[in-house]
Amino acid sequence: MSRSYLPHWMHWLGSPPNFYRFAVALRPWLMAAALIGAVIGLYGGLVLAPPDYQQGDAYRIIFIHVPSAWMSLFIYASMAIAGLIALVWRVKLAEVVAMECAPIGAAFTLITLLTGSLWGKPMWGTWWTWDARLTSELVLFFLYLGVIGLYNAFEDRRRGARAASLLALVGIVNLPIVHYSVVWWNTLHQGATVVLFGKSSIAPSMLWPLLLMALATHLYFFASILGRARVGLLSLEGGKQWVRTLVTTEQAP
Amino acid sequence: MATTATSMLDRTATTPARRAGTLAACVALLRRDFVLAWRRRGELFLPLLYAVIVAALFPFALGPDPRLLGRIAGGVLLVIVVLAMLPALESMFRADLEDGTLEQWLLAPQPLALLALTRVIAHWLTTVLPLIVVMPLLGILLDLPASVFPVLELALLLATPLLVLLGSVLSALAAGARRSGILLALMLLPLAVPVVIFAAGAIAAAQSGMPYLAPLTWLAAALVLAIVLAPLACAAALQIAVES
Questions:
Q1: Which residue among A145, A167, A178 places its CB closest to the CB of B194?
Q2: Does the predicted model carry a pTM greater than 0.90?
Q3: Do B187 and A150 touch (CB under 8 A)?
């Protein structure tokens, strides 16, 4: 028996043809669940939830802003973990997944910055302020752009993916340092209202649409990463036999 | 167990010779970098020239009011140093990658991280130290109060090695890429944010007569951490750059 640190299904899934079929099968379901969740969550947030006693209806942007902000961090963590796997075990699939995480994460970060800016104008009277969380998010955006830029600057995609994975890992060490240094520097942002353990300082009627939106964005991310990684694998493995048989025998799904 | 014990003994037995070899390699590397820098000594003045030009532009853009210039001078000088360091950072490993020297580094018995650290030291001494030396002159040009100069110099002495260490990782990552001019700036920005905050914080605190030791000690702590970790990351990046 060969000694392995990974369960069998992970080895199975790490093989590009298997992952391709897995992604084809799973992606529509995830995407449909994400869309349904987003519709219900937005209805709950924009229509059913009561207006805030202090911020009126303006707070409703929270249902976009906060899930996007969570996703911007979650995707960065996913990218760094995939990057670590790519660097340590040289799994081709992990390289593809890490690199395809970056554009999605950058998009969520941009949404966070833009909605935050729209929210800041009525609440703080300014589009942009050099507050700790805003600055950290902006730095996160630049980290994403750096990863994307480095990946695309290489002729050889696999080398580019490994270099960019290392950059993502450097970034994840850097991110807490940036956050605490800018907190020390300047802060204005409201404190966190949803905490994982203990009592959240948010009404349940506002909480459930928020959590549903967070679930929908996660599902969207998983659907999106499956689709993007599938395309990435196809172009990386273009000359391989399994792609050839796939193209000649199957219609594009 | 017995074999591991003997092999450990063997290792300890060869360590002194190996250590001397490592030291000799680092000294040789330093000497080579100094000679190369000296042969192209005209290039060493380019960052200085750049810094003088940018510093001279600020009074034209903001007006010659000494109070305004004096208030922003500390931060401006810091940003000038960071920007003037960037072009040289890009070419830290590029020539060595192209002529195959990096492959020799990888094959050498000396640890790659140590060679990378040596290169960082050589780079800092040849390209960044002159910048730090001329900063008081630019400070006078921008009406920075003379009492702040020691803190400015101290902050730069702590912040610039930190930036070169961080930059060495990025430069190694970008060495194998096709183009990397603006890319390096993009990658360095997130890493440089805390460094700039603490260095500028120390200068600003000194300027307003407040205690400035805390940000400086933070910088020193970060520098110690970076001296340990950055060469390791740099070595990993160099391995990615060399393998094809």
A1: A178
A2: no
A3: yes
